[in-house]
Amino acid sequence: MTTVIMRTTARAIVPIILVVAISLFFEGHNLPGGGFIGGVLTVTAFAIIYMAFGLDFLERGILGRDVDPGKGPSRDRVVVAYRRLFAYGFAIAVGSGLVPLLFGRPFLTQTYESLEGVPIYGYLGIASALVFDFGVYCVVVGGLLTILSVVGAE
Amino acid sequence: MSPDLAIVVAAVALPFVVAALTPVLFRVLGEGTGFAGTAVALTSFGLLATQYGREGAVALPWVPSRNIALQFYVDGWALLFALLACGIGALIFSYSPAYMHGESGLVRYYAALLAFMGSIVGVALAADLIAIFLFWELTSLASFVLIGYYTADDSSQYAARMAMFITVGGGLFLLVGLLLLSVVAGDVLGPGAAFDLAAMLENPDEMQGALRDRGLFLPVLGLLAIGAGTKSAQVPLHFWLPNAMAAPTPVSAFLHSATMVKVGVYFVGRTRPLLVSAEWLFLFASLGLTTMTVCAILAVASTDIKELLAYSTASHLGLMIAGFGFTSVYGAEAGVFHLLNHALFKAALFLVAGIVAHEAGTREIDELGGLRRDLPITAAITTVVALSMAGIPPFNGFYSKELLFEAAVEASHHHDIGILGWLYPAVAVFGSIFTVLYSLKFLSLFFGERPEGLDHVHRPPVSLLVPPAVLALLAAFVSVDPQRAVDLIVQSGLEATAVDPHEMHVGIPTSYSPALGMSAVTIGVGLLAYPTYGRLHDGIRAIPRTVPQVGANWWYDTVVDGLSDEGRRFAETVHNGMLRTYATWTLGATCALALAGFVAAGAIEPTALGIKATVPIALVLLVAVIGAVAVVTSDSHIAGVLTLSILGFMVAIFYILASAPDLALTQLVVETLVLLIFLLVIEEIPEYYEVGIGRVARDAVLSVAVGATAFVTVLVTTDARPDGPTEIARGYAEQAVPRGGGTNIVNVTLVDFRGFDTLGELAVVALAAISILTLIVMRGRDEGRIGPRGEDRPDDPAGARSDGDPSGGDDE
């Protein structure tokens, strides 16, 4: 799978996929998209990296760390980071639900703020649900990447 | 005067709090933690003693919306039981350090013992049905830990599991009974009193009338009887009690004398004014007298001193249940007074058994005898409490047994029970004869000849002697002046359990009565039959050996072993380690359940299918079908995966045509990811292997079933939808912008309107990741143990399992 064509293509498309994924996440409240779709698309980008460059590429090639070949996949630092990501994502989602309790509203109540006259955009609506959606994004990315990298290493 | 809420709550909560702090205490005090337990028990005792003479209910709010409160009811009966638990608990705690010296796991021991004492006090005082159930099950849990204290010992584990299985199982019957009771109480006394046992006890006639009107009286009575009967070891569920002697002796003394097994008796006494009737008499008097007789006979057959005491405990529990079963006031007197007497003499006897086992090194009855020279103080203690157990005048056990005889004779005066009017007294006397026999046998450990094989017996330390001595002194005090004990506490207990309480009088009888005659027969026959004890013992032991079905334990083993074997066989069929087997069972069961559900609900009805597909949709679906056919006929994995994704992408296009952009986007992205994962792992999957025609047929049938289920489900669910958008759909569409601040209804619904659902789905994703991680880590460990790990590893087992891997990604 790690052919030159594959690597060249991956180099070109992975950044595009990541940008699209992030934009899908941000505009999700008003246009098709959202945390879940953005998350899955991000994972797709990582899956392409894994396919094109192998599983150790992220640790060795990008982060510049040495990889112990006999080490279990679940103890890789990258996998640890994925695990943290979904744990923190879950904490963010739950935490964003707890905030309304401070204001005497039910768990997971959301609100939004409209900003007029913002440069470039003109009008900008900011929903508190974005924080919750960010939690969704993190859990999806962290969870799926954990599964992907651990299972892939097997 | 009503009780003080703070004091009552403190008395119940203190043992639990200290139980949680036990690890810290143990670090500071070491084996002296037992004395801290004594302090806790005495504090709770003192706190409860300040409530002496008060009566009434106090409550802490708990779940106000359901009218559930942490309600406590204080009266003589509750105080008697709670004070006994705390008082004997204090003695057990001070006995434990010497007995358990050098054992490991003492933190667990003391924590469980404290939590157990707290739950018993909780059961005694709780007046809310939910709180009663909660404390009831807490006693079962704590006793499980205590009975299974010797974790390395199989018999101890077996006994703990058995006690748990029987008492928790019985607790579930109790729960159903309590819920039925609360439904009726909610109707009769108002919703506020649905769980309020104190309110029910204030209106017993209305409650009983309402229960009978609804036809629930017998079910409730039966369910509560099963709950109480399992807890109090009534025949035929008595067998867990003798097995539970696998626990350390202080635990046996605590569990079997004053607490665990008395909970059932206590509860029967508590609900007696509510449910007392002719059926009550028949049920509990028969149950109690049967238990009393059967277990007394089994006690005579025992070879081990703790086994003898355990059977004798079950027998005495039968006596108390029978006492409460008799509807006359004598019955209640017998039950309440014997609860006190039995706690005093039985706790002392267990502690004596502990001393004997500890100092003589054996518990076999045959190997013991003539210990009075080695253990003179213990012998004196035993004389008092064993004669009390036998019911010999003037010891305290005599008075309560006399009351039982009186109640048995009285039974036929109150209800027309025919032959039972004669049978009840006869059985009571018959069972009591065996009580006299085994009591004398226990006493004979200290008298008569000293067997040759017995080694030198050490003197017990003072800390082992003081607790039973205190109990024996109390028993002697009650023996000498029973009327004072009655005035102190028994009378107020009687008032809570009897329907028509009157001034209770006990003392040495001065004139002849039928009950006195029965006592005379009991003691006389018992003494005369004692020389034949050996033959009786052997004869009774021979019965279960020839006919094992006679023993309840045999039934328990047969049922439990049978269930375990069946479960293991079933698990081997369903979970044989092959992914296709798992998939077959899961999919097959899902289809069967779904289709059966539709049929049961009558949802499937032949309707004309109005197919209104536009040309583009029809085209897309046609391509999807062709893709599906191609998947089946493809001859390599790559072709199969690629054609499968044709199917997936066509579904995405279908979503676009059906104007569902979010769904289409999700489908596209997930499809891409799945395709990538397939390609990533495809090299690991073995080449095509030959499959037999049988397996092909099975797969075909399963596939058709899954397809049919999906088809029917879509048909049924979309058919039930009303024309046009529903109210909910309209509401979401209208409110998305004003309330959610977003124009994408799907996303606003996901993160705002139904955020809780999304949170649940996140938990599923996180759980899936954690479980896959755990599985792989565990597998890595296994391999590390079996052989060296290295580069050559990935080839061998990966084939069979890696075809399961993508399904992990698929699920999301």
Mean pLDDT of chain A: 82
Give the helix level of chain A as a range of percent: 55-70%
Helix/strand-derived category of chain A reads mainly alpha
Instruction: For the record, give the distance between the C-alpha atoms at the N and C termini of chain B, rounded to a whole number.
Output: 63 Å
- What percentage of residues of chain B falls in helices of 4 or more residues? over 70%
Strand content bin of chain B: under 5%
Count of domains of chain A: 1
Q: Helices, strands, pairings?
A:
The complex is a heterodimer of chains A (154) and B (812).
Chain A: H1 4-27, H2 35-53, H3 57-62, H4 77-102, E1 112-118, E2 122-127, H5 129-153
Antiparallel strand pairs in A: 1-2
Helix pairs in contact in A: 1-2, 2-5, 4-5
Chain B: H1 5-29, H2 33-49, E1 56-63, E2 68-74, H3 76-99, H4 106-125, H5 129-147, H6 154-188, H7 197-202, H8 204-213, H9 217-231, H10 240-243, H11 249-257, H12 262-275, H13 278-300, H14 305-325, H15 329-360, H16 376-390, H17 396-414, H18 420-443, H19 462-480, H20 482-497, H21 514-529, H22 533-546, H23 552-574, H24 579-601, H25 615-633, H26 637-657, H27 661-681, H28 693-719, H29 727-740, H30 745-753, H31 755-786, H32 798-802, H33 805-811
Antiparallel strand pairs in B: 1-2
Helix pairs in contact in B: 1-2, 1-4, 2-3, 3-4, 3-11, 3-15, 3-19, 3-20, 4-5, 5-6, 6-8, 6-9, 9-12, 11-15, 12-14, 13-14, 13-18, 14-15, 14-17, 14-18, 15-16, 15-17, 15-19, 15-20, 16-18, 16-19, 17-18, 17-21, 18-21, 19-20, 24-28, 25-26, 26-27, 27-33, 29-30, 30-31
